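Reviewers of the previous submission asked for a worked example of the structure-prediction workflow described in the proposal, so we include one complete record here. The input consisted solely of the amino acid sequence. No template or homolog information was supplied to the procedure at any stage.
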Amino acid sequence: MGVKGSADSEKISIRSWILAMGWKEWGIVLLLGILLLVAGLPVTQKSNKSINTQAAEKTRLESRLEELLSNVEGVGKVEVIIMTGEEGNTDSFSISSKNEVTGVLVAAQGAGSAVTVQNIQQAIMALFQIDANKIRIMIMK
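From that input alone, the workflow returned the following structure tokens.
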């Protein structure tokens, strides 16, 4: 019975403490509750905007590179994929402060010619300041 009695007395003391709280104490409790709610809110909206912005810029770069290369003599129709990542050289072309171009894949109709492949490769190396081993040029069917 001693244990049960102590639990009842704790309930009574907590209840009496809550009832005895004034406006100032309730205000503090309310502010702490709001602070905990705000601190627990997810911040994914900003990161989603950042991801969408990076994806849009990457797509824009791919389109511009496709347009540029398709206007070069002997290249023909072109499709480009730009790979980005957080790893890589700090001196390479940067899409954002975190993501840099780490590789470029090009499919071109004129890639059967060694001269055309070299021209495409040199253009990409100059544009993105990446090494030749990070560029792959393939013949488009």
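The first strand starts at residue 78 and ends at 85. We consider this example representative of the routine output the project will generate in years two and three.
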